[in-house]
């Protein structure tokens, strides 16, 4: 059994079932091992950023890690931006990165680079295998590292000879660490804060945002009067009919500052103190009012749901019942196609258990609030701010949950970053409906240009944020990659196309032409 | 004058004229400064790998540096693979990477990452600006660093407040270092080797591959009997009618080993000893026969052309005349469209001073040898092995040389990596003809799979290297990004389409459907 075969069997023994791959020559023994395996599904992506984004989406929805397979430093580089997003989402991802054979590295052949250096900034755990016999143990450690809760990026660099040389037996299933409980003092302090009469906000993210976590937060709010928020960018939020509601912090500083106005105490559950996405000249980075008392009930890696249970017990929510969202659909718009009309159609039509992958940016901003009363669904957002996350993440979500409809809301600018994802959706016949919110500009930048106080707003400046001249035709691009596509120019057209898409299986793209 | 303005003026003072950009909020002051400038051309790309590849192509053809503008760590990550190629090409590139404001960094907002860590593996020079007043001097140093011959990657990280705070006057034009002369002993040793009667090979790359360098090598060959080769992957090679010929080392070890067979001495000019692109089980990494005496006449950064002049003098080539390539066109094929028929059409039709950007991979392999006797042209290859170099590099070459036709030969698999480049070609109306060599597979991998001795060659294995199911339609994708496109299924169709493309201006794509 060679190193690749034993590594693969170790992954399978440890429950890894999917590999998102774009291999090269140095990965051929791994490819060969996967080809011979019945238990590892291989999904080819035409660019590594598609693989890493897919692994992120898979981890968020499957609650466990997929692996990726990349070709030396450049393959990892191409995956890096979506690994950044996955890292910020605390997703569990195992990267297998081929490298030159150990004895070949010193010749500095064209593809040679500092793979460890490239891996470190986007990984929690990095190792280079030293020989074939150590490879099974290395990858077993990578699985354990990736699954440190809520999830980590574990990158194993595999020189080609470690894959092809004779190895040892695969490693059996490893025990994975549970998220540690929070200290009793953290619960006690939070309970005291909730009882001291001061205006209090509870801010949640990551593992706090389970269905049960949301219910507990609602009970805590009912009992104490604390207001409950989640971060602006959250890995996954269960919402819609039957779920306890939560308010989401706004993106712009003035929104978030207003939401938090009056708070004297802030309790964080699975997250950190809220800060501005960017700095702006002369404006504060921190959102909470000056002098706010900050308290962490649970770090992102701690058992936030259990901490909320203990806090609810400590303040005695007994007898209270979570307030659950009713089914409240907004009705359809007619006439002009606008961000709001799209949001209304999305809220009307998304089926039970839909997964919404949201890189809608400015044009998609209306979809979230309007769909609060839609059928129960999960909402996944761009956690690291690196655009081009949506399409790949939709791949991974659809692979993890083949029985659920994935609805990917995507700005046109971001969609171009990883547009190759459409081909993989077609090849794997994934049940994904992509809505391209086509406003033909990086609209957020035109807003931010004014906000940061930059002074030149002439045609040359705006051209650097403009996607017209020529207009992109997403219908043609989509068809060119095998995904059925249509264009909507009115609300009525969009409503009808989205209705069709929700009632059929398989990948489909709708280009929504916004004014 | 704020930091961004003084930085920009410093770049302009130092002859930087083009910025390939995909900015974000943290770069808005730089965008604003460029918008107000008459002297810096801004070219928007829809993915940062397009920018970095374009900067590589620009540097190779302009012989000087462009700058890029990227958005924090993820923007740099997306640029990284083509920076790897540019680094291996010794291209001069100045990266300006925005980052969070100095005081905002500590809050670890979503887009925060280790930008220096990401930059180091792909850069020769990295610096983070510390404040606005130091920014002009920083960027002046970056220009100098990028222009260390033949060229380097210089990355300047610019926290947002360094761009918006008040700065000092811009820095004037800085003197750039010339390539150092080689030591006399290096010339003397080479001359002795050429005179000692042992079979000798001269291997050249980088700055040795000027028109004059090739002529000198030919004279040296005539005088001494040494055989002259260039590396397999070269940044730029002048060839065709009127140029002295040179043989290119083959990609596969068995080709290169055969080419070098019998050599007892190897003189390297602007390059290193030849090694295998990848390691293969049980095969040697080094190409030159065991026991070959190796001698470096010029390192890649030394003045190789002058070293060749001195060597030619030392062995007294006086009276000899360079043997120049005659115009020898191969004629057109008819009937089936094959790699050879494409090569013949390319050789027949490329106009005087064409620039060929070659990421043709296996299907493009015939184009190079067949076009030896075409009109004079430059040939640019993939120096770092990271696919997705061709389309972006064609952008840069076309920007650097607006009066020359750029012919981009591209494999279908590699083209998907940076397909967004087509939009920039359309927007800038660049005179680029793209030939997609569509064999609907990563053919090189199917060859390499067997060569590395991997054992499973079943459908599942081959699917990981297969681009069919669904077939990509490059005509639709190209039209979707505003570039006129056609499909050729026979040699006659291809000949006619290429003839049209060579006789008109502006971007155009031909999808060549190979069997």
Describe the structure in your own words:
The structure is a homodimer of 515-residue chains. In chain A, α6 links the parallel β5 (125-128) and β6. Chain A is globular, with a radius of gyration of 24 Å. With 515 residues, the first copy, chain A, is of the alpha/beta class. The first copy, chain A, has three domains: 3-164, Rossmann fold (3-Layer(aba) Sandwich); 184-314, Rossmann fold (3-Layer(aba) Sandwich); 339-513, Rossmann fold. Chain A is built from 21 helices and 18 strands. In chain A, α3 (48-62) runs parallel beside α4. Chain A is 37% helix and 18% strand. In chain A, strands 9-14-13-15-16-18-17 form a seven-stranded mixed beta sheet, sandwiched between helices.
How confident overall, as mean pLDDT of chain A?
A: 97
CATH superfamily of the largest domain in chain A: Thiamin diphosphate (ThDP)-binding fold, Pyr/PP domains
Q: What is the terminal separation of chain A in angstroms?
A: 60 Å
**Category by helix and strand content of chain A:** alpha/beta
The quaternary organization reads as homodimer
The total tally of domains of chain A equals 3
Q: Write the CATH architecture name of the largest domain in chain A.
A: 3-Layer(aba) Sandwich
> Radius of gyration of chain A, rounded?
24 Å
């Amino acid at each position: 059994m060679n190193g690749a075969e034993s590594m693969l069997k170790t992954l399978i023994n440890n429950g890894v079932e999917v590999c998102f791959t774009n291999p090269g020559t140095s990965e051929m023994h791994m490819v060969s091992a996967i080809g011979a395996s019945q238990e590892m599904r291989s999904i080819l992506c035409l660019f590594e950023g598609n693989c890493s984004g897919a692994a992120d989406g898979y981890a968020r929805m499957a609650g466990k890690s997929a692996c990726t397979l990349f070709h030396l430093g450049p393959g990892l580089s191409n995956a890096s931006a979506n690994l950044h997003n996955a890292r910020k989402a605390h997703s569990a991802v195992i990267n297998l990165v081929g490298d030159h054979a150990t004895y070949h590295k010193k010749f500095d052949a064209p593809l040679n680079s500092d793979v460890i250096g490239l891996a470190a900034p986007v990984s929690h755990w990095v190792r280079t295998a030293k020989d074939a016999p150590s490879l099974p143990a290395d990858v077993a450690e990578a699985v354990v590292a990736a699954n440190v809760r809520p999830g980590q990026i574990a990158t194993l660099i595999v020189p080609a000879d470690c894959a092809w040389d004779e190895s040892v037996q695969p490693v059996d299933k490893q025990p994975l660490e549970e998220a540690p409980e929070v200290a009793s003092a953290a619960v006690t302090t939070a309970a005291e804060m909730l009882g001291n009469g001061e205006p209090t906000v509870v801010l949640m993210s990551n593992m706090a945002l389970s269905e049960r976590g949301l219910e507990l937060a609602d009970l805590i709010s009912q009992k104490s009067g604390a207001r409950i928020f989640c971060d602006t960018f959250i890995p996954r939020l269960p919402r819609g009919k039957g779920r306890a509601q939560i308010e989401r912090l706004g993106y712009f500083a003035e929104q978030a500052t207003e939401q938090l106005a009056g708070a004297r105490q802030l309790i964080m559950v699975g997250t950190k103190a809220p800060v501005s996405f960017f700095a702006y000249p002369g404006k504060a980075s921190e959102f909470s009012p000056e002098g706010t008392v900050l308290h962490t009930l649970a770090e992102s890696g701690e058992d936030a749901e259990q901490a909320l249970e203990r806090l609810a017990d400590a303040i005695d929510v007994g007898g209270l019942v979570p307030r659950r969202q009713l089914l409240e659909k907004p009705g359809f718009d007619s006439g002009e196609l606008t961000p709001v009309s799209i949001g209304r159609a999305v809220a009307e039509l998304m089926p039970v258990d839909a997964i919404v992958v949201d890189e809608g940016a400015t044009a998609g901003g209306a979809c979230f609030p309007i769909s609060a009363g839609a059928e129960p669904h999960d909402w996944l957002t761009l956690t690291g701010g690196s655009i081009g996350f949506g399409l790949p993440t939709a791949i991974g979500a659809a692979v993890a949950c083949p029985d659920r409809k994935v609805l990917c809301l995507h700005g046109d600018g971001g969609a171009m970053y990883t547009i190759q994802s459409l081909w993989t959706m077609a090849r794997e016949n994934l049940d994904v409906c992509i809505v391209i919110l086509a406003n033909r500009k990086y609209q957020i930048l035109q807003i931010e240009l004014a906000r940061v106080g930059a002074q030149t707003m002439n045609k040359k400046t705006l051209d650097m944020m403009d996607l017209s001249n020529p207009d992109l035709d997403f219908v043609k691009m989509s068809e060119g990659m095998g995904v059925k596509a249509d264009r909507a120019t009115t609300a009525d057209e969009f409503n009808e196309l989205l209705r069709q898409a929700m009632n059929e299986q398989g990948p489909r793209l709708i280009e929504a032409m916004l004014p």
